[in-house]
Amino acid sequence: MTQLGTKENPLRVAIIGAGPTGFYAADFLLKHKNYVIQVDMYDRLPTPFGLVRGGVAPDHQKIKTVTKAFDKTAKHPNFRFFGYVELGKDVVVADLRQHYHQILYTVGASTDRKLGIPGEDLIGSRTATEFVAWYNGHPDYRDYEFNLDSHENVAIVGVGNVAVDVARILCRTQGELNETDIADHAQAALARSSIKNIYMLGRRGPAQAAFTNTEVRELGELLGADTVVLADEAKLDPLSQQELTVSNDRLLNQKVEIIQEFTHKPRTDKPRTLTLRFLVSPVELIGDENGHIKAMRLVKNELYQAERGGLGARATDQFEELPVTLAFRSVGYQGVPLADVPFDAKRGVIANQGGRVIDLESKQPILGEYTAGWIKRGANGIIGTNKPDAVETANAMLADMAEGKVLNPTAPTAAAITAFIAARQPCYFTYDDWSTLDKLEVSKGEAEGRPRYKFTQIADMLAAVGKL
Ligand code: NAP
């Protein structure tokens, strides 16, 4: 047999998950100078791009232009896309091991973390992850209901960038939303919204807020809402002040300044008020006789020097009730296990060392299986953070290949794989199918002065490219 990684015997890699990490890894592998590598990328949806399509807020179109680079990668002759093929349903890991030398899981983190407080399951207690997927037209969430017309006061727990996205979308005017690719059903629900007050709740102080400066600054520029911070919560406690002085972190100083500026901003007659709260934690969601939330009980926190470093929040004996009837928890995304892939349930990631999937008991690498992105390291960082992460794993893959540590597939040819997938999922999407859909979305959007008009039902996507 000719050497692996050559034109005659290319290294065949399956990438599971067509989000940014999958594309960064594909790009790195396809551009390798010495090896010929063929990449097949799978996604359970017909559409690629993961959270760039289903997570990045519809009013942040500039961030979405990163997909231009992914389109370039997809043009490589050794790249193929198999959309609408689900691992665990249409194919299983054992199938992939018969067709590929290496498998890379880049499936992201699709669920939310829980707060673990009483009342979390009351009606009106929702997750940011499902709200985000709903307003972005993700097919799995399009039929969720958000009755925004029956609430005046809403809480968002957490002060990360996702919480900011949720708050901003709730505050946007219809005019602003008209310029986005928000899903129709979400825009219609937002048009009927009776929400007046939105509270974003940080358990620690301004100097520990997880959102980034650009994102929090944008909250001061909303056409439909005044953003407010309470003066006593904006003031830094001595521990934060000391930490800030010692670190002399320019960006962090800037963030604190932005937050503190909100305390002086004059109120206007904008229809909504967004209040950023700090040093408060929800301890209970209080229900009415019908099982709906009628309030959230908060405890005031104080900061302390945590043993593992940084400042932690601990509860005081001061409580208050916030009269909210809708609450979004936005305390981070969490990975979900894939069938037959070892999962570190504590961390919510695929068990791995530097991207090599490991056996849970022996802690030894499992031959030919790798992971990258949020499902490897947890849900943190911006889109670009996934590039070095993907490269780390891709380098591990190349090092293993150089040592002959690859799978021994029985049918590793492009034709055998196509035939196999066509048998399992005859309606699979190629990248050309996606490009057709993309053009249709963009042209329909342009006709309405929007960046695109998304397909939100899989049946419509299939019909649009003649697969139904
Ligand atoms: P995140 O950045 O990890 O923020 C989670 C927030 O939830 C933090 O404020 C955290 O507070 C808080 N939290 C966690 N557990 C809590 C609890 N039990 N009670 C109260 N608060 C709790 O997560 P995310 O907002 O979901 O974002 C995920 C990643 O995507 C981040 O890296 C983010 O930057 C990125 N993202 C970026 C953009 C953008 O660039 N525009 C947009 C969206 C998302 P502590 O800090 O105290 O733990």
Total count of helical runs of at least 4 residues: 18
Q: Output the CATH class name of the largest domain.
A: Alpha Beta
What is the gyration radius calculated from CA atoms?
A: 24 Å
CATH architecture of the largest domain: 3-Layer(bba) Sandwich
Give me the CATH superfamily of the largest domain.
FAD/NAD(P)-binding domain
The description of the largest β-sheet is: 7 strands, mixed
**Structural domain count:** 2
Q: What's the CATH topology name of the largest domain?
A: FAD/NAD(P)-binding domain
Plain-language structure description:
A seven-stranded mixed β-sheet has the order 3-2-1-4-20-19-18, sandwiched between helices. A six-stranded parallel β-sheet has the order 6-14-7-8-10-9. A three-stranded antiparallel β-sheet has the order 11-12-13, with no helix packed on it. With 468 residues, it is an alpha/beta fold. β18 (352-353) and β19 form a beta hairpin. The protein is built from 18 helices and 20 strands. The structure holds NADP nicotinamide-adenine-dinucleotide phosphate. Residues 115, 157-163, 165, 202-204, 208, 210, 215, 281, 330-333, 379-382 line the site of NADP nicotinamide-adenine-dinucleotide phosphate.
